[in-house]
Amino acid sequence: MSSTINRRKLIAFSAAAGSTLLPGSRAFAQDSTPAASPAAEPVALDEATTISVGAVPVPHGEILQFVQDNLAGDYNLTIETVEFTDYVQPNTALDEGELDANFFQHLPYLEDFNEQHGTELVPVVPVHIEPLGIYSDSIESLDEIEDGAVVAIPNDVTNGGRALKLLEDNGLLTLDPDVDNPTVIDIVDDPKGLEIVELEAAQLGRSLPDTTISVINGNYALEADLTPAEDALALESAEDNPYANYLVVREGDEERPEVVLLGALLNSDEVRGFIEETFEGSVIPAF
């Protein structure tokens, strides 16, 4: 899995968000990991402090940019964003001490990463939900899917299972009901004989022309110039959805003043308004 890292201090961007949902969505049970406590009111730091945060560019980098441009300076905080294009390197860099925090992942992914890599990374505050969506360049409705259609899904464990659940919710297959986080081997009925291809999440937008449908993470859909609330053939529901994206730090760093402050700013009314006004249903505040 490759990554492009561009170290720079955020100075200007834009953003996106809202809550329009399409039919055929799934209401997920809450994840077993306790949610982090809501952020407190922001309190200015005693001295100027820089915090380095790993993020994917859209929408996470854009949200951090908004905070940097409009809020952070009033509290003696500077956000230095390190941009990544995959879902592995931001956690590796955080664990190795190259970052103070990261902002790109939901709790199921974080739990699985900690288990697989022996890391001790913890959530601070939830910020937003990016509904997973089904997209196509060749059809306009899921009713048009033919037998043997090529279906691409993310190849990481948590998002792959999430994608399969969305396909099930839209009547394309049936999963073993006793499996919480299914893989392709847990498909018990596939009436159309779908050819399911597992790809790195970052590749799904670019490979869309080669598939009948692709199940794409919200940030990568946005990077592919797709508007989830308009272009998706189906979207997840935001109700009881455990896939809120969190600010994350190493265990023991949760109470560092700059971390607490950034969490408070990310959960501010200003950030909520920015998300809602910019992303128009493609990204949804989770606080």
What does this structure look like?
- The chain is α/β, with parallel strands linked by helices.
- It contains eight helices and 14 strands.
- It folds into two domains: 6-131 and 242-285, D-Maltodextrin-Binding Protein, domain 2 (3-Layer(aba) Sandwich); 133-235, 3-Layer(aba) Sandwich (D-Maltodextrin-Binding Protein, domain 2), CATH 3.40.190.10.
- Helices cover 26% and strands 23% of the residues.
- Mean pLDDT is 88; it is low at 1-36.
- The two termini are 32 Å apart.
- It is elongated and about 65 Å long.
Full CATH superfamily name of the largest domain? Periplasmic binding protein-like II
Distance between the termini: 32 Å
In order across it, which strands form the biggest sheet?
1-3-2-4-13-5-14
How does the overall form come out from the CA principal axes? elongated
Q: In the CATH hierarchy, what is the class of the largest domain?
A: Alpha Beta
Helices, by number, come to 8
CATH topology term of the largest domain: D-Maltodextrin-Binding Protein, domain 2
**Which regions are unreliable across 5 or more consecutive residues at pLDDT < 50?**
1-36
Quaternary assembly: single chain
Question: What CATH architecture of the largest domain would you give?
Answer: 3-Layer(aba) Sandwich
Helix content: 25-40%
* Largest pleated sheet: 7 strands, mixed
Q: Count all strands and give the number.
A: 14
Mean pLDDT: 88
Number of domains: 2
Strand content: 15-25%
| Estimated radius of gyration | 19 Å
SS class:
alpha/beta
The H/E string reads EEHEHEHEEEHEEEEHHEEHHE
